[in-house]
Structures are given as C-alpha cells and as structure tokens.
Amino acid sequence: MSDIHLDLYVQTQEAAEILGISPSTMRQWARQDRIRYLRNPQTGWRIYRAGDVYALRDSLQEAKR
User: Fold this and answer.
1) Residue 12: per-residue pLDDT
2) What's the pTM value of the predicted model, to 2 decimals?
3) Quick one: three-class SS letters along 6-55?
4) Is 63 helix (H, G, I), strand (E, B) or coil?
5) How far, CA to CA in Å, does 25 sit from each of 7, 35, 36, 41, 60?
6) Which among 15, 21, 44, 48 counts the fewest CB atoms within 10 Å?
7) Is residue 42 exposed (0-12), middle (13-18) or buried (19+ Cβ within 10 Å)?
8) 48 backbone dihedrals φ, ψ, rounded to 5°
9) Residues 8-55: pLDDT tens digits?
10) Which phi and psi (to 5°) does residue 16 adopt?
C-alpha cells in the first residue's frame, strides 16, 4: 500500500463535490460498491481514484441525457 500515489486520489469531500452529491451519499455509494475506494494509509480515511470519480460523473451525466 506504500506505493499509492496520493496525488492521484481525492478525499470524500472533494469526490462528493465533483459528483454534486453530499459526502454522506459518497460514503454510502462506497459501501454499496458503486465506486471503489482505498483507505489512506496515513489517516485511515476513504480516498477515491480521481479517474474513477470523473468516470462516474461522466456516466451519471450521460444517463441524464
């Protein structure tokens, strides 16, 4: 886990902002395996790969069309 490049990940708050949802919804989606996450090895907080967050955002926008 020490080879994680944390600059490629976002925390729950930032991921929620990108997706236009609340942080609690973000955590719920993570528990439901709607999006993958890791635990930050330093803090234990959930972190999400930025590419996964943006891909989910794009698929949600596409579904609205």
Assistant:
1) 98
2) 0.86
3) HHHEEEHHHHHHHHCCCHHHHHHHHHCCCCCCEECCCCCCEEEEHHHHHH
4) helix
5) 23, 11, 14, 23, 14
6) 44
7) exposed
8) -125, 140
9) 999 999 999 999 999 999 999 999 999 999 999 889 999 999 999 999
10) -65, -40
* Measured CA angle at 31 (ends 22, 41), to 5 deg: 90
What values do phi and psi take at 4, rounded to 5?
-75, 130
Name the residue among 46, 13, 51 with its Cα closest to residue 31. 46
- pLDDT score of 2: 59
12-19 and 50-64 helices cross at what angle (nearest 10)?
20
Q: Name the residue among 51, 43, 48 with its Cα closest to residue 14.
A: 48
